[in-house]
Amino acid sequence: MAYDFYFWPTPNGYKVSIALEELELPYNLCPVNISVGEQHHADFVAISPNHKIPALVDHCPTQGEEKRMIFESGAILLYLAEKHQRLMPQEADARMTCMQWLFWQVGGLGPIAGQAHHFRLYAQDRHEYAIQRYQAECARLYDVLNLQLARRRFLAGEYSIADIACLAWVFRHERHGIDLQDYPSVERWYQALLARPGVKAGFAVGESLIGSGDFDTKIAKKALFGLHDEKESL
Ligand SMILES: N[C@@H](CCC(=O)N[C@@H](CS)C(=O)NCC(=O)O)C(=O)O
Fold first, then answer.
1. Among the atoms of ligand 1, which is closest to the Cα of residue 71?
2. Which residues line ligand 1 (CB under 6 A)?
3. What pTM, to 2 d.p., does this model score?
4. 92-195: which CATH topology?
5. Strand pairing class (68-71; 55-58)
6. Which of 13, 62, 66, 234 is deepest in the core (most CB within 10 A)?
7. Does an H or E element contain 7, and which?
């Protein structure tokens, strides 16, 4: 198998499962159960030094080394699009538009929606200021997305890794406190993408794992939310 795909069924994981399925690439699925701390295991950290999924190992890279290890979902999407010459516009202007929206997702929508989700649903105590701040910024970002999608069918004109990156997060919009009825162009785009066979297959990848990833346990909170003590083993 050309690719080992380190995955857990979360938004950043789905970005890559959708891209792999859209590209119809064979891969070996390597689940990393982040709710029990497997992201901190030394063999995984050797591939993903940031202790987070997703990660990819390419055993048939086009250049140089025998194998290529890649972490960071945006970098993985770019790597796959460039290697396989798909899911990325070829024309320079559209290509830059694709990059802009990819970086916007990685640096904006993902982290902010993630914090909105965290403070709304996971934080041990209720922090009104944090909930208000992240939910309001998240709503602003959905407005930005809505405006672009009112102008274009897909973020960069044609379907690309920028759409895949944003879709994987919009898939969890309810957890961000977002009602898609307030963002009609996002809703139109979202429904169109959900109907794609590659997207369906990408979201199906995690189905059997979902039940084994309870983020509400003591060990999950320790593994996920910064309570990890290097001296203790998980
Ligand atoms: N910037 C990273 C973020 C990855 C990330 O946050 N992954 C989460 C799941 S969506 C994770 O592995 N969390 C485990 C942890 O925080 O311990 C990327 O885009 O790949």
1. 20
2. 10-12, 34, 39, 51-54, 72-74, 106, 223-224
3. 0.93
4. Glutathione S-transferase Yfyf (Class Pi); Chain A, domain 2 (1.20.1050)
5. antiparallel
6. 13
7. strand 3-7
